[in-house]
């Protein structure tokens, strides 16, 4: 970068940081709430005369890498290593339930253990019990790793807090942030490790611009284990506290490539818009109809009640459905140009959607049906008997030595095909149940009956 | 076959034979004309004091395997082996020209040598000069083989004349008779050899019903030469007078299979219609339009002036055109369901036609254009620069790690594609010249502007 560009770049960074760095007020508020919660938990422990239990704030709040406007606290209740799982779950829940007294609202959830999610003074708090193992190689459940991650990042992140914030916000803006099964992108911890590894926000981008899928990164110097290499993920970042674990295993090929692509573009001409995607810019109905007509392809949407499950359960099933319906459409000669899946957020609606763009949603009445080679006499004879006088057959002839019959196509439009055979597609358990209840099909501009801005944004991106 | 069926079969054979066997009058007439021509030639030879030249009738007329209604005579003028090619051509033509004095009309033609085609009293006569070699292994030009073929068949065909006639007529009826490049079927000589080999008309059919492509037949017991085996033709019948020659080399896979198929059908339920195809049954316009609409596919015909050449020159170029235009159409995503080529006979019109049936003749305005993988930075960058802001680009995105751009399709209908790019297709010399002069495109029911019954029959067979 020349000097002028560098200066512009630094000004831009400062501008972004000033928008995403928590304010002093936010910082104090977070510390207050954290203190209040931890004190309350220690009181419960004391009151119940429990021994050797400690409480600790983990996650981005503890590491000073959180973003302004996000108010999430992860508080871990750490039990002695030799506690039984039953005891940990029982006592952990008991303590957490006591804390709900000072919460505005709360919900019991379940990951590897049961845990509680609270709302306290506008903060979302996860209270999670875990085993306090002496060494990260001895963890008894995956959450036990978190305190070690916390420790590792805290000891290595000094001076790089803002770089982490910039990278997280950049990834958010371009849509690759988040390791949930919906997004298949970069987790917060991975972002922190990338900054530690490359030393700065811009160094991450400089290097990422030259990444190739299959790239392998590690902070230590040990050999990378065969297990990790055989995993063949697009990105491998060895967990510094667990050499058998790939921190980037969730990152899909396309999210990796989108990051590489955006890194190049940003370095070429840095601008604020990479950090703040234009939300709500879903385009109006007239614009969308115009685009659809100008493409002159066929559009069809399957819409049904969202299963009452979290995103991490719903999205993999949606993606599976997208794949199996695509296969079915193509088996019947409807060529899929593009597809995507989307679901309204729990609480904000109750629909799930799988969208398809087809080269054409209408096919001719006939199709060629190839039979066996004429010289395989028995097979040939059976085929001929079946088709040569069939009322749904057009003509019967020989091509490249094979019998061919032009038969009436069962489905000349994609909608009737889906009405008829959607239920035969391989679907996940919960979606299968929902589809068996009911589903609707929207064709072409009927697709715009779905007014949700997030859906409209996805649609407009695909046109 | 049970007795009743056998009796019915024999009655049918007799009925067909009575229709196709030349009448006594035809037979006498043929002998008369032949005698007259041969006498005339010998007179010319005598008058000009030429030495060691003989004259001989060859072909089906000489072998008593000709069909009633066909009036073709092949008369060969056989020169001594040591005659030079120039002398043979000059003197051969000189003699033939003298014969034209008694002809109603005549034409000089050219195959391997110049020869003359005469019309005499309703007979079509080819007067062909050849070398009278002592042994079939010493032939100097391919026509020299004919007298040997003649000799071979005459010595082996005794008692099988009607069987040959039945087989020829059967092959005519089902459309596989003729080894010209238009038909790619069975020659008269091959038909005779098949009857000699299998012993009767019905035995040919019984055996053909179980043929498989790659079948190898020979009348002698010698090993089949490597050259012939490597040729890999659908049917191999070793020429009994030339072990290096495949009499069946013209037979295409589909004509072979059509014969196999018809043989089975005929043996299953013998009937007269196999022998006499319904000519002129081209169906009326309304029927054809109805069929075309019921198929709801796209039809397009390229029509242009037939090059002023014989079928054996025109048809290979038409077939080549059919293939290369199909490739071009499919390259632009127009999927060809069926195609055929056809040309009016010389003298009966002057158009050639290549016909295509397409799954659809209209495509959407956009198509996906795949670029390089994102990680091949230089290529990727070039592609992105070219397409991401192109005015003909719809959207630009990443799929399976590759850049993809939805671009405006150059040709959304097959007609405009052909108008624009037909001349870029690989065409034969003469068709290329004709196309460069002019061509027309007929779409859907415009195809019925072509009223020739032979074309209409081909069309109706394909619907």
TrEMBL record, chains A, B:
Q: What is its EC number?
A: 2.7.7.72
Task: Indicate the segments annotated as coiled coil, or none if absent.
Answer: none
Residues annotated as domain CCA-adding enzyme C-terminal: 295-443
Catalyzed reaction equations: a tRNA with a 3' CCA end + 2 CTP + ATP = a tRNA with a 3' CCACCA end + 3 diphosphate; a tRNA precursor + 2 CTP + ATP = a tRNA with a 3' CCA end + 3 diphosphate
Q: Identify the InterPro entries for this entry.
A: CAA_C, CCA-adding_arc, CCA_tRNA_nucleotrans_2, NT_2-5OAS_ClassI-CCAase, NT_sf, NuclTrfase_I-like_C, Polymerase_NTP_transf_dom, tRNA_NucTransf2
- Which residues are noted in the entry as ATP-binding? 60, 63, 149, 168, 177
Q: What Pfam families has UniProt attached to this entry? A: CAA_C, NTP_transf_2, tRNA_NucTransf2
Share an example GO biological-process annotation for this protein. Answer: RNA repair
Q: Where does CTP bind?
A: 60, 63, 149, 168, 177
Residues of the tRNA nucleotidyltransferase substrate binding domain: 162-276
The Polymerase nucleotidyl transferase domain extends over 45-149
Q: Keywords in alphabetical order, please.
A: ATP-binding, Magnesium, Metal-binding, Nucleotide-binding, Nucleotidyltransferase, RNA repair, RNA-binding, Transferase, tRNA processing
Entry GO MF terms: ATP binding; CCA tRNA nucleotidyltransferase activity; CCACCA tRNA nucleotidyltransferase activity; magnesium ion binding; tRNA binding
Which cofactors are reported in the record for this sequence? Mg(2+)
Which positions in this protein are listed as binding Mg(2+)? Answer: 72, 74, 126
Q: Note the subunit structure.
A: Homodimer.
Q: Which family does it belong to?
A: Belongs to the tRNA nucleotidyltransferase/poly(A) polymerase family. Archaeal CCA-adding enzyme subfamily.
Q: What job does the chain carry out?
A: Catalyzes the addition and repair of the essential 3'-terminal CCA sequence in tRNAs without using a nucleic acid template. Adds these three nucleotides in the order of C, C, and A to the tRNA nucleotide-73, using CTP and ATP as substrates and producing inorganic pyrophosphate. tRNA 3'-terminal CCA addition is required both for tRNA processing and repair. Also involved in tRNA surveillance by mediating tandem CCA addition to generate a CCACCA at the 3' terminus of unstable tRNAs. While stable tRNAs receive only 3'-terminal CCA, unstable tRNAs are marked with CCACCA and rapidly degraded.
Q: What else is known?
A: A single active site specifically recognizes both ATP and CTP and is responsible for their addition.
What protein am I looking at? CCA-adding enzyme
The species this protein was found in: Methanosalsum natronophilum
Gene name for this UniProt entry: cca
